[in-house]
Design brief:
Number of helices of chain B: 4
Radius of gyration of chain A: 16 Å
Largest interface: A-B, 43 and 51 residues
Oligomer: heterodimer
CATH superfamily of the largest domain in chain B: Rod shape-determining protein MreC, domain 1
Number of domains of chain A: 1
Largest sheet of chain B: 7 strands, antiparallel
Number of helices of chain A: 8
Order of helices and strands of chain B: HHHHEEEEEEEEEEEEEE
Shape of chain B: flat
CATH topology of the largest domain in chain B: Thrombin, subunit H
Shape of chain A: globular
Number of domains of chain B: 2
Strand content of chain A: under 5%
Strand content of chain B: 25-35%
Helix content of chain A: over 70%
Radius of gyration of chain B: 25 Å
Order of helices and strands of chain A: HHHHHHHH
Distance between the termini of chain B: 71 Å
CATH architecture of the largest domain in chain B: Beta Barrel
Structural class of chain A: mainly alpha
Helix content of chain B: 25-40%
Number of strands of chain A: 0
Strand order of the largest sheet of chain B: 1-14-4-5-6-3-2
Chain lengths: 156, 264
């Protein structure tokens, strides 16, 4: 049962990663990118950080390196795992409010897009990161509210 | 207390997996990517886009109407015919577009001795590299040139998979290709995402009337294909060096017609 659960996490993570890539090509004309996989990393790391997701992070990174990039094997896995640990570590030590969470979200988004920042470094790109962060943070909050366990209780 | 120790355990497991990823990077780095290439050549089936499978699904004929009345059968048959006709119309439109783009291509490139394999864009990864259809199944190799509809070089293959390939394009900052002009001067063309930077590396004749810069067999390219047109651009000659900057206007889209050149 446990294995089945881990496998389903892996499949969900990989599907979302592919979905992010497809969105990327559809929104190629625009600077604003929607990053569902990053939202997933942030959501899981800040709300449900546990051992059960580490294999999913690891394998989705390996899958991505294997079929979509010319990176060395394991680079993306290392990035996903590092981002996940750091988000959880910092988030658990911060007094979480909207501003601090947004700053955290933006900082790790920059880390998530680190290859692009290195290859096309410009001050302008940081404003784009801020814009992407704003849009994705809004989506993150939306998902957060929707997935809250007591959402039905509140409505009654 | 229990939660705290659970969290610590999670951190340790995450850090272990981080080191595992790191060791994979190191193994791949020191084996000069042979490690990842070996694994890739065995597990290609994980890639989700498979045109053959998609076509098989589309062509599956579910005969649900066998036991129904003739009228329903007739309706179904007519419906199928309409669907077939619509498909034919789409195929027809695609073929017309292909003929038009092939005409464009013929204007600028040599046809004899070369095979132009039509490809299409599949996905763009997070490092702005594009993945196109066609890989080992079409006998493609690393550094094969990729042309656009007008016959200009827009990139080259950097990694080959079974049925898809990764390309470095004029929109990537790691794009770099040598070229030659009509005077025999050699250039290195690089990109900074928005512009192509053209700098001479060997000058035979000091002449800024460059027009086109081509690929050449001297650089292990299959032949002469235009990389950049400098006839409308400002070309400068300073310190025994010819240089120019050209804005990259090319943009990829799902319906971009791109071609991979192979020698016959």
């Amino acid at each position: 049962m446990k294995q089945l659960r881990y496998l389903s996490f892996v499949l969900i993570f990989i599907s979302l990663l592919i979905f992010e890539l497809f969105i990327g090509i559809i929104t190629d004309f625009s600077e604003v990118k929607i990053l569902p996989f990053y939202i997933l990393i942030f959501y899981i790391s800040s709300k449900y950080f546990s051992n059960s997701f580490v294999i999913a992070f690891f394998l989705s990174g390996i899958y991505y390196d294997a079929f979509y990039t010319s990176n060395y094997f394991g680079t993306t896995s290392a990035k996903f795992i590092l981002i996940s640990i750091l988000i959880n570590f910092i988030n658990s030590r911060l007094r979480v409010n909207l501003y601090s969470e947004f700053i955290l979200f933006t900082f790790f988004l920059a880390l998530y897009k680190v290859e692009t920042i290195f290859t096309s470094f410009s001050i302008n790109y940081f404003s784009i990161i801020l814009l992407i962060s704003g849009v994705n943070y809004f989506l993150f909050k939306l998902i957060n509210i929707t997935l809250k366990e007591d959402v039905f209780k509140k409505s009654f | 207390m229990y939660q705290e120790s659970q969290k610590r355990r999670s951190y340790i497991i995450y850090i272990l997996f981080f080191f595992l990823s790191g060791s994979l990077v190191l193994i791949d780095f020191f084996s000069n990517k042979k490690f990842s290439d070996t694994i890739l050549s065995r597990v290609e089936f994980l890639f989700p886009i498979n045109e053959e499978a998609a076509n098989t699904l589309v062509s599956l004929d579910f005969d649900f109407f066998e036991s129904r009345s003739d009228l329903i059968n007739e309706n179904a048959r007519l419906k199928n015919e309409v669907i077939e006709l619509r498909k034919l119309k789409l195929v027809n439109e695609e073929l017309i577009n292909e003929i038009l783009s092939n005409d464009e291509l013929i204007k600028n490139v040599q046809i004899e001795d070369y095979v132009y394999l039509k490809s299409s864009l599949l996905i763009k990864n997070t490092t702005n590299e594009y993945i196109i259809s066609g890989g080992r199944n079409l006998n493609l190799n690393i550094n094969d040139l990729v042309l656009n509809e007008e016959g200009f070089v827009i990139g080259y293959l950097t990694k080959i998979f079974d049925d898809h390939s990764l390309i470095s394009t004029v929109l990537n900052s790691n794009f770099s290709i040598p070229g030659i002009d009509k005077h025999g001067n050699e250039y290195l063309i690089t990109s900074n995402n928005d512009e192509l930077l053209v700098n001479s590396i060997l000058i035979n004749e000091k002449n800024v009337n460059v027009d086109y810069i081509f690929t050449d067999i001297a650089f292990d390219h299959p032949g002469k294909f235009p990389i950049v047109d400098l006839s409308q651009e400002e070309v400068s000659q300073l310190n025994n060096k010819i240089s120019s900057t050209v804005k990259v206007n090319y943009r990829f889209s799902f319906d971009s017609n791109i071609y991979i050149v192979k020698k016959k």
